[in-house]
Amino acid sequence: MRSLFKYFVRNHVFYLFLLLETFSLVLVINYNNYQKVRYINSANRISGVIYSSLNDVVDYFSLRKINEELARQNSGLLNQLDRLKNEMQGNTSAKVDTSLKNQGFLYMPAKVVNNTVYKPYNYLTLDKGTKDGIKEGQGVISNNKIVGVVINVSRSYSSAISLLNMRFNVSAKLKNNNPFGPLNWDGRNYRYAQFNEIPFHVSLAEGDTVVSSGYSSIFPEGLLIGAVHSFEKKEGENFYSIDVELAVDFKSLSHVQVITNMNLGEIKKLERGQQDEDLD
Amino acid sequence: MRIWIKYGVMFISLVLIQVLLLNQVQFSGYINPYMYILFVLLLPVSTPKYALLLLGFLMGITIDIFMNTPGMHASATVLIAFIRPYILNLISSREMDKSEYPGLKQYGFRWFLYYTSFMVLTHHLFYFYIELFSFSGFFLTFIRSILSSIFSIFVIVLSQYLIFTE
Fold first, then answer.
1. Architecture of domain A37-262
2. For position A42, what pLDDT does the model report?
3. Secondary element (H or E) of residue A76
4. Is the confidence at residue A120, as pLDDT, over 50?
5. Which of A9, A11, A19, A20 is most worth mutating to test chain B (most B CB atoms within 10 A of its CB)?
6. What's the domain count of chain B?
7. Integer Cα distance of A34 and B135 in angstroms
8. Whose CA is closest to A198, among A190, A189, A208, A188?
């Protein structure tokens, strides 16, 4: 017993090394399995404050760009308002339609305080948290273009998994003829993502618009993702391999909106009920 | 007492430099310099091995918190903290009068460059593969870690002339 104890004391450095290394690797493996950063993430108080104070400084340098972006967004909204007004006057049923469709989702503006594009797994940190009503699993969009999904929330900050993350999948479809499939990112170029599982019989053209399919309860249908940049039919495969040029420039992302699905609880309940019935 | 303050200040400033400066400067997809390991490099030569490991772990986990990379930087930094005594033994000759502080001034340019290169290359190779967590895209990751290493070594050596001159 004594010699065993002595043995451990003599090699304590090696065992400490093994202990710390195992602990870190367990964190890595957990993270890789569950795609969740439970405790160690940038949505905590200290790093949130540091990031947002850096952001306050950096913001001054990009004010012009942000102004342009806001102006563009503004004019887009005005156009939309105009068009809807016209539709309303001409057609009363259109009014009912749009209002019903839009009731399902709530928009909350947020600022991006930290963002990366060059890693295989990129994340965003936003300056809104539980006190603003942000919850895990809400979608993040920028001008009706998909950006990511919130995965962690603290009191005043939240971190979101970016579309530029190899573990992120979003259900997408072609706008003109509706076939859908998963869209993800291969970790190479931050301007392009890959759109999969579109069968060969679908007719494709460069420049076709790719939008969200609405089959997930996170994003509403029809949010812009990007346009088909190039596609090819590979020998021996059943599906096209499609490169999609992303509509969002992730490198200059500053203001985003977090969307809440008002009907999420109901949808979840319905789906759970369905499963229970299947089991019975 | 003074040494605690000195290394405390170094710890905080290296974390801030890494998080606020180097992580924001993303030159291209290939280059991500990690300068914070300078903290492990510059700990006194006679630091007990267990303290090296614990301090390395603390540094790594702090960076992890900022970068949403749970355990990745921690594991890489613990690894280099573990091999540091062996590398010091390997590259120091007996005749050298040993200084407590393994800096560039004390040990000379050539020695410091060897020392930094060994440590940075080990750290970066380990880190980039752990980050990806697979060997797919093996060659791309290899290029990324080598290019980033070169840049990190450059930044670390340069910093010895600019800031940590004592």
1. Beta Barrel (2.40)
2. 62
3. helix A63-90
4. yes
5. A20
6. 1
7. 20
8. A208
